[in-house]
Amino acid sequence: MENQTIAPSIVLSGLCDIPSLQLPLFLVFLLVYLMTLTGNLLIVLLICTDSHLQTPMYFFLGTLACLDMGYSSVTIPRMLYDLYTQSKIISLQACITQLFFFIFLVMSEVFLLSVMSYDRYVAICHPLHYTQIMHWKACVLLVLGVLMISIVYSLVHVLLLLKLTFCRLTPLQSFFCDLPQLLLVSCSDTFINVLLILILVILVAGGIFALTFCPYIIILNTIMKMQSKAMRSKAFSTCSSHLTVVFILYGTGLFSYFDPNVKDHSAVDKVASVIYTVLTPLVNPLIYSLRNEIMKKSLKSFVCRLKILG
After folding, report:
1. Would the pTM count as exceeding 0.85?
2. Where are the domains of the chain?
3. Closest Cα to residue 103, out of 65, 62, 70?
4. How far is CA 38 from CA 22, 31, 67, 178, in A?
5. Where is the G-protein coupled receptors family 1 profile domain (predicted)?
């Protein structure tokens, strides 16, 4: 171990090794990033300016939009830099910093989606007590709790990661500093890190799965008992938007982290990583705005106000 040279930087394999595709990919993902920021900023702006959207449901949706902007900004700008310069080299400190914020923001989004499931459960199954249960103080405390748990979760992984030595120049088979790939390029014993990932993922994923999907068993049962078709349609629309976001994020994320061939990070794995790190923050505002009548009315009103001012 003493004779090994400690690597001060990490090499990323990036999205593509073909030089002629670097600029087209840069332009495509730059456009995607700008659209992501614009769409999520628009949702936050509508929620802040429209009194009809200042309810717990839209408070959580605005928080989700902020998290989407955050974790897309952790990965995409660095990817754009590597595509433009074709350097694909990142310092170890920057790599671990990126990893910390990525885990923190993604876990915050995952926990927030569970909170949004509970919000839908209260709204549909206990509508008369909704304002008493989901008051503003409770909503703020739930979001703060989500952020605190996510910070602790991220810190645990990063602190153990800091104890490792990275002395190999083997490229990370990814376009960002992903935890499983980062452990593969360490020359230290990573048994504890891998065991911790396994234990925490099982515990956290199991808890999140229960908190996210169990309320929907009761929700669906309640919806089917509704007499009004309009009420059933509205409830299904709200729930389907939330579940669509959940399945996109969970499906691609679990595919990447539970891939048995993580050492052979194939093109399929990179596509899955692109979906949950790049495309999910882009489609979230589209899913919630296009399937939400109140949001569409608010957007039309906002556009009309801009035309009047213009």
Report:
1. yes
2. 9-294
3. 70
4. 24, 10, 14, 26
5. 39-288
